[in-house]
Amino acid sequence: MNQPDDVRQASVPAPVRVPFGQRLAAAMQEHGPLCMGIDPHAGLLAEWGLTDTAEGLETFSLRSLEAAAAEGVAAIKPQVALYERHGSSGIAALERLLGQARDAEVLTIADAKRGDIGSTMAGYAEAWLSDGSPLAADAVTLSPYLGYESLRPAIDLAVQNGRGVFVLALTSNPEGASVQHVGGADGSVARSIARAAAADNAEAGPDHLGPVGLVVGATVAEDAARLGLDLATVGGALLAPGFGAQGATAHGMKTGFGQAWPHVVATSSRAILQAGPTIESLREAIRRNRADLAG
Ligand SMILES: O=C(O)c1cc(=O)[nH]c(=O)n1[C@@H]1O[C@H](COP(=O)(O)O)[C@@H](O)[C@H]1O
């Protein structure tokens, strides 16, 4: 007997996705720790000979993805703010980038820095972390400054869907210290975020990266120890923006992160993107950065 389509679909089990931490670790194993930030700033679009429009954004994004996919990176990290500048057509360009990255099997970290009261957080979680959402990414950046527990809906959905989150702990901007360093070595705000993340990662076990990564700026990693953060025991990946344009070097990061270095995803946006507009010149910049990090 023929079944209606919806009954047939309901009987098909949902695909089991390998957890984000394991997928990221595999990508890092294969390609090294470089994450290519995709930040379509107006100035970069102009340098590439593109217009500061949604069309320009899309060309910029897809060319960046093509270079990243061809060369191999741990992940790409599109900066959501720079798509939001263009309203719905900018978001449509971001959706196409995320969709094509999915097809190319390049991991995506949507840099949206979301954070809100729990009930609203559930909406952000659905947008960025649920199957079938046009904006679904492999992971999203979150701000814990409404309280780490307010992020729970996103953390739960990430776990359920084999996705991940990166929670801001120590950011690369100078103003971050006025909040994140409060409490000092014995009880800094950043330390409490790191401990909460470690608790959420415990279930993944010592051999796997858990679903909750931290954002620790590449330029401020050396602050971690004096603020009581043991980055090597967080149990999640450490997203480290600031490599390149903000002055962090591969050598400086290795020293700053110390034993936690194997968990670091080193993120660079402008320093790579400035090499555009050709795919070959972008690939060359990715190769150079990868070699630098491997050396
Ligand atoms: O969450 C982030 O990615 C982030 C956190 C942080 O502490 N510092 C920081 O620079 N970022 C982002 O990382 C990117 C850095 O870009 P570049 O300085 O051009 O490499 C930007 O998209 C920033 O918004």
TrEMBL record:
<dbReference type="InterPro" id="IPR001754">
    <property type="entry name" value="OMPdeCOase_dom"/>
</dbReference>
<dbReference type="GO" id="GO:0004590">
    <property type="term" value="F:orotidine-5'-phosphate decarboxylase activity"/>
</dbReference>
<dbReference type="InterPro" id="IPR018089">
    <property type="entry name" value="OMPdecase_AS"/>
</dbReference>
<protein>
    <recommendedName>
        <fullName>Orotidine-5'-phosphate decarboxylase</fullName>
        <ecNumber>4.1.1.23</ecNumber>
    </recommendedName>
</protein>
<keyword id="KW-0665">Pyrimidine biosynthesis</keyword>
<comment type="pathway">
    <text>Pyrimidine metabolism; UMP biosynthesis via de novo pathway; UMP from orotate: step 2/2.</text>
</comment>
<keyword id="KW-0210">Decarboxylase</keyword>
<dbReference type="InterPro" id="IPR013785">
    <property type="entry name" value="Aldolase_TIM"/>
</dbReference>
<dbReference type="GO" id="GO:0044205">
    <property type="term" value="P:'de novo' UMP biosynthetic process"/>
</dbReference>
<dbReference type="GO" id="GO:0006207">
    <property type="term" value="P:'de novo' pyrimidine nucleobase biosynthetic process"/>
</dbReference>
<comment type="similarity">
    <text>Belongs to the OMP decarboxylase family. Type 2 subfamily.</text>
</comment>
<keyword id="KW-0456">Lyase</keyword>
<feature type="domain" description="Orotidine 5'-phosphate decarboxylase">
    <location>
        <begin position="33"/>
        <end position="285"/>
    </location>
</feature>
<dbReference type="InterPro" id="IPR011995">
    <property type="entry name" value="OMPdecase_type-2"/>
</dbReference>
<dbReference type="Pfam" id="PF00215">
    <property type="entry name" value="OMPdecase"/>
</dbReference>
<dbReference type="InterPro" id="IPR011060">
    <property type="entry name" value="RibuloseP-bd_barrel"/>
</dbReference>
